[in-house]
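Archive entry: two folds, one per protein. Generate the first.
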Amino acid sequence: MSKIVTWLIIISACIYACNSVAAPLDIRLCYEDKEVIPFYLGEGEQVPSNNPGANIDILYALEKKSDVKFSFVRRPWMRCWEMLERQEADAVIASFRGHRVDQLNYPMKDGKLDTSRSLAQVGNCFIGTQLFHEYWRKKHVTENQPLSVAVPNGYAIAEKLESEPLLLHTVFSPKDGYRLLKNDRVHAVMGVCQVNGRNVYADQSGIEGVSPIYPPFEQLHGYIAVTPQFYKMHQPRIEALWDSVAEQDSTDMYLRYLFMTTLYK
């Protein structure tokens, strides 16, 4: 009898192990609860069932080719970082910043950041009035008075803008920044104007007389970045996920959302 019990235990353990290996890796990914075009559409904690944004469409596509399943959590951006620290979330989509290296693991190769495994390279331009265009060309002329730029709260690009002769106006969301631009309360906002090296600005604002300033003020790569604890537990599967990212071209997904409609009118 003891041999039968032993074999039953062994068989049960094997079945459990096989099922564990076969099950997709569940990744709790936190992303912003505000609309940020073309990355995320909709407001609040619900993930839209249709047109959720380019980043979410890309992750859904990755589920079909990778051994993962994303569980989405929408929260204010700074709350996502708190959830990562408390291990209530496993991942975010984020650019690489030096101060984040202790909080997140990014795809690396030979000790360096592997940009080939980013979701995309995105260029952010000033979307400004003609007055702002003229100002930016002569920004270091001492008699020029700084002009104002709207920047959403918590966005890392603010750190770089602080070193420029600008007045930064903090807003709740990108949409709020465009409203201020439309009402002549600021002279410019930051907007996506380039994807994977291609100039793709669409006049999303519906505001006459505003246009992007090329080249982009900042070029960023967006990564699926995971907590160090999660990476340590699932390193082979996370690396395989990043490899799958490198195999797909996401440009068309971003273009679809940039050109689908006038979203800030």
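Generate the second and append.
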Amino acid sequence: MNRILRFAFVAALTAVSSLSFAQNTVTFELSSAESYKQFGLAGQSSQTSNDGDFTEEKSVTSGDVKLTVSTSGVKTANRMWKGSLRMYGGTLTVESANDNIVKIVYAVFFNNWDESNNVNNQELEMTSEKEGKNVFKFYNWTGVSKKVVLNVKKAFLRSVTITTVSAAGIKNVQTIEVNEKAPIYNLAGQRVSKDYKGVVIQNGKKFVRK
């Protein structure tokens, strides 16, 4: 009997430990035709419209995580334009109200990323994925912080994915349950059907559909 109790105790302790550092992932999609709406903008910018220009600081929140776009501070405004957030200066700030941010992935619109972009004067690690003839780049920040400020010289972004870690593991396990009806995107940030083959993103997770 004691042996069974010891086994049950170890199993329970293992389960609690696995929850202690549960992760939660939030993705801000910036590539859809209606991405401007989440920032309260009137529309996308174009050659004939400035509706998508950031003339003041704007934020969007998902759960406990907030993404804030500043003004550019230069002649060309930061803007929502043709399937991406186009930043020409200023800052892109990620804040978490409760949990610690441990990773941020900035998905780049083709090669539109200036190597001088930085967080606390540190360059970000670049990774890439190939889909067909296209190569998609990602710049990755890792650390532990409740606030991460990306200093931007130039960055065209398709999405920003934030991973947080909380000591309240049970809460996070509930928030990362898979929603099978959630929209599916390809690496270009375009919404695709459930029959799409290749690398896709759903619920903030990347996987391969065959």
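Annotation attached to the second fold: The CA atoms of residues 66 and 95 lie 5 Å apart. The longest strand covers residues 100-113.
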